[in-house]
What does this fold into?
Amino acid sequence: MLSMFSDFSVKRVVVVGLGYVGVPVACSLADAGFEVVGIDVIQSKIDMINKGESPIKGKEPGLDELLKKVHKAGRLKATDDYSVCEGAYAVLIMVETPVDRDNVPRYEALKSAVTSVGENLKKGTLVVIESTIAPRTTTDIVQPILEHKSGLKGGEDFYLVHCPERVAVGVLLKNLKELDRIIGGINEASAKKAKELYKNIVKGKLYLTDSITAEAVKTAENTYRDTQIAFANELAYLCEELGIDVFEVQKLVNTSPGRQMLLPGAGVGGHCLPKDPWLLLYGSGKTFQPKLIPTSRHINDSMPHHMVSLAEEALTQSKISPHGAKVAVMGYAFVEDSDDVRNTPALPIIDHFRRRGIEVVIHDPFVKGVEGIGLTKNLNDAVGGADCAIFVTAHSRYKNLKLKNLLQKMRTPIIIDGRNLFDRKKCIKEGFVYKGVGKKH
It folds into this structure.
């Protein structure tokens, strides 16, 4: 496998994990002149990369074109064989790090990847963990595995850093290129070595620190956003009770200097925000009991259930029996114009109505079939004969829907708006029963 590239004078970089982080990183490094090998356990991803196709769908400006370019130039290949790590200049690991139902980190994928890297690690290689991890994971879990499997000493025989990703779905390449990055080394030499690599693909500032600080920074920045969203969601509950529009409140709050209130919505999804607060708090509780962060998580987790309550209230108001009812869930991706379904807030809504024996049809213009879920890209199939349309995702296609057309297709004109897609007064004027998060009912 080491003969994948013919020119061994060019530095080889291995990227472990060909997902939303790994693919843009691999493409960017290849475009910078490195010979890049991507490693993944999913054969379909490997096959797509080796054909010059991106496994990431949805609107990702420039990514498809960049991947085709570096593939055509012969600088990007993919495999499941970790022997390509032998003699590599750098190995970047970016695999998923979820938490379980008790909010404990699940590091099976990380440990497996680190073990395989360690078994093929040679002196002088830079190992980077981009996966989001709890504080002390680099030094307490990753480093011991690498040292045990390789027989080498971290910080002396090989370099080790945590450089957390800051990409976001929809702007993967833009964020990778433009945003500042935090590089946390197990020692100063490791951090400096990683800076030499990242300056090839990052135009933003590169801040050097220790690995534990870098781990805390990454989890804290996502936790900060999660708590901000929780405030907006709690205010939405309050505005519904007051009979006013939370989005009008949000807009006017932000006219005050220094205020940047975020938007409420149907729920917080994605790989990061639902878990990173728990990663930050992992191991806490010995000297203090955190209150704000867990409460924020619970508020955000409550939003899909609130959507269910709004829908059931509207169905009851319209005298629709669960027997024979049809609900259209509009949007399965967690974020607009993307195929990313990780921790989607649509799933609790779907599960609830299916448990009640109600027919549920899920529409999403970007997401392919998900096992056990059932999806359609045909809008008419979803809303045709539906008694309730629950808008979970703010896909651009939904923003352009004409209410009159929707009214003609539905059996019962009910809209549950989780993303402020529609004007309440216009919906009511057209004949809809309308209920939206943070709006007068």
